[in-house]
UniProtKB/TrEMBL annotation:
UniProt GO cellular component terms: mitochondrion
Entries under InterPro entries matching the protein: FAD-bd (IPR002938), FAD/NAD-bd_sf (IPR036188), Ubi_Hdrlase_CS (IPR018168), UbiH/COQ6_monooxygenase (IPR051205)
Pfam families, A to Z: FAD_binding_3
Record Gene3D superfamilies: D-Amino Acid Oxidase, subunit A, domain 2, FAD/NAD(P)-binding domain
Domain FAD-binding: 35-189, 249-274
An example molecular function term from Gene Ontology annotations: FAD binding
Protein name, per record: FAD-binding domain-containing protein
Length: 291
């Protein structure tokens, strides 16, 4: 149904692709942060709007600013997107009363290879997800109430592992309508003698791999394209009148979802594919018209 890929492997594949096509990109700036975005509006030409990004190299002690100019800006800079905050795009956000805890685990699979992802809803406030990385390692995503996140984080690595193992074998305290329906119609008999797979036993957590972050929801849908705010109100009115579109946001910048849905990256990749096709289509139309 799906594949789980390590982030580092995907980044390496992307980097290798860029290296094999050096002329495909004009410039790549690593370890760089955007500190401001604005746009110059040409009142004589509605299509001549220029976006200016002020950036700094994080390794530059003096933090000297550099300006990059573009006619089209695509922001894929996370749920705290500066591109979105500087644009005209409306954004709806809601913080959840939950925190996520991630980490890398060493596991011992139960009578099988470590090739299956597990999700255990222990209660309505505690959800454990194990995503296989290789034969003996899994990535952890743990959803806990905000008030208990410190209790989890202050545990020693050994105590953390012990508590996780206890929660994985504990009988779930919640039962969904689907569980009740399956019980009523004895759905398990359809599987015959098929053995129900048990989650792996956790052996250890990689030192320093644990981290906690707030969970929330956010979306700009149905609007994912707009323009950068002009600093002069009169010029912004001109931009709004001409309905200029020069900015798009994709990925977590456009829609933030619960990590247990496992769709954040997939949504971002889908956004990038559609965005690329739309740009290619516009270029083809522009070329055809110019001919």
């Amino acid at each position: 149904m799906c594949y789980i890929l390590e982030n580092n492997r995907m980044l390496k594949a992307l980097h290798d692709q860029i290296e094999s096509n050096p002329n495909s990109l004009q410039q790549i700036s690593y370890k760089t942060s955007v500190v401001d975005i604005n746009q110059d509006v040409d009142v004589r030409d509605s299509q001549a709007t220029t976006i200016k990004l002020k950036i700094v190299n994080l390794e530059d002690i003096e933090q000297r600013e550099k300006t990059i100019q573009t006619r089209l800006l695509i922001g894929c800079d996370g749920y705290k997107s500066i591109v979105r905050s500087k644009s005209t795009l409306p954004y709806f956000a809601a913080e959840l009363d939950q925190m996520g805890i991630v980490g890398t685990l060493e596991v011992e699979p139960f009578n099988s290879d470590n090739g299956i992802a597990f999700q255990r809803f222990v209660s309505d406030q505690l959800v454990i997800a194990l995503l296989p990385l290789d034969e003996c390692h899994s990535s952890l995503v743990l959803s806990v109430p905000k008030q208990s996140v410190q209790d989890w984080m202050k545990l020693s690595d050994q105590e953390f592992v012990s508590r996780l193992n206890n929660e994985l074998i504990r009988e779930p305290k919640i039962q969904s309508p689907l569980d009740k329906l399956a019980s009523t119609f004895n759905v398990r008999q359809l599987y015959g003698n098929t053995q129900i797979r048990s989650p792996p036993t956790i052996r250890s957590v990689a030192a320093g791999s644990r981290a906690a972050f707030p969970l929330g929801f956010g979306t700009t849908i149905p609007f994912m394209v707009g323009t950068i705010q002009a600093k002069v109100p009169l010029l912004q009115a001109l931009v709004n009148k001409d309905k200029r579109v020069n900015t798009a946001i994709i990925g977590d910048a456009a829609h933030r979802v619960h990590p247990l849905a496992g769709q954040g990256l997939n949504l971002g990749l889908g956004d990038a594919m559609v965005n690329q096709m739309d740009i290619a289509k516009k270029l083809i139309v522009s070329f055809a018209n110019s001919r």
